[in-house]
Design a protein that fits this description.
single chain; alpha/beta; Spore Coat Polysaccharide Biosynthesis Protein SpsA, Chain A; 2 domains; two-stranded antiparallel ribbon
Length: about 500
Amino acid sequence: MLQPRRIRMIPAAKLFLLACALTLLVIRLPNHIWDPVKSTFVLTFGFIALWRYLWWTTHFVRSRIYRLLVFPKKRVKAAAVWSDGWRPSFLHFMVVTFREQSQTTERMLASIVEECRSAGVPGRIYIGTGDVSDEQQIEQYFAANPPDIELEAVIVRQNQTGKRFAIGSVLRAISRYGVGPNDLAIFMDGDTIMDPGLIAKCAPMFATNPKLGALTTDERAIVVGPEWVQSWHDLRFAQRRLAMESHSLSNKVLTLTGRLSVFRAEIAVNADFIRTIEADSLTHWLWGQFRFMSGDDKSTWFWVLRDGWEMMYVPDASCVTIENIGTSPWERLKHNLLRWSGNMLRNGTRAIALGPRRVGPFIWWCLIDQRISMWTMLTGPIAAVITSFLFGPQALLAYFVWVVCTRLMLSCVLFYYAGEIYLTFPVLLYFNQLIISIVKVHLLFRLSKQRWLNRGDQKNKQQEGQLLIFQRVMASFMTGFYLTLLVFAVAVYSGAIPLPHLHTLNWMWPR
């Protein structure tokens, strides 16, 4: 979180100047915002905006309640249990890696060794590999740095392509070794590095709450690539902190992040849990039954949710992920958004079907809101374009001022969670929301469409022939139909298309 000592004067000064410039824009420019007759955009969509920002405020208030009131009590109880000598019997590290850079692999392994040493708990690292180069790196590391603690490394070569099968192979290896009732399983990616003290902060949470099935931690990214990608990741993780704290107040989260999550070991070796990860699927009215390629963290989350376990977010335990962007940052960003949005839509559908009693009212409504927000985000630009035809280009200027002002206010909240002032946040926040909404609408009727650049550029296989042609045409038709309805509703709501009056209908169809 943002601390006063970390506020740098130059970004703070730039933020103040930006706020002053926006104030002048709103007051001085002829943008219809203050016009009592032509302020159509602001007046007609004030209700939608009020609803969305009240929802943001709800999350912020819940976040502060959890972080300042609820979680400290959990931390005190967990710290007392840890200081009294409680320890998990054994730590099972489930790690999957695929052609990772050697420096990243070494830092990941070193963090595991150090955490086992500091916690004083024996452990075993099960590393699912898909390439011999990863195995050579692991062997070279332990040959040069033999652990001085009770820690063993087991390499599990996957026999089928895909991360899901790699995870399944590792979990089956863990089940063959056996787990105890007091064991924990830590799920990690090969590019994840644990911060010091993570095990000591997370493990006792399971001792203090028998209903807790899994938890996830804070996360931040180190981007090897363009600076704007680092800012974008910092924005996403700031949003993640706010949302995770809010969700955890309901003893649930919306995802058990694949980069690092901790499970009760008995869950990790459950045969149905393992099979769900390996062969999770969804039956869709248009695309039939299809298997999931990515989104293993959503599958584990759905299984834990459906089985009735509680979940939580531990904000004072953190990990670092290394993001090697490569030579095509825009291409990687596009495919990441397609993958993340697809995972959200595919898993949200079945989680909503569980109902509010099983999921919990607030978390269930959060799942519903994910579906609604992708449409409400599009109402703003659509309304701006429509009203520009009615009142001229000044309506677009009003929308621009509105966007910059509102996103700056939201960014001021996110600065708090990011721990630093980023002047790029307002722009990145708006385009992130807009692009994600467009991507979700595109994928809504294309849930089977999947591609994962990682682990060999996996793509879903679809049937050929007339059926595939029909499915694609129907998906395009449904997308166009829904978008047409949205544009029509916005046009009617803004007054651009007046509906016929009742007396007109009586004249057309007399009794």
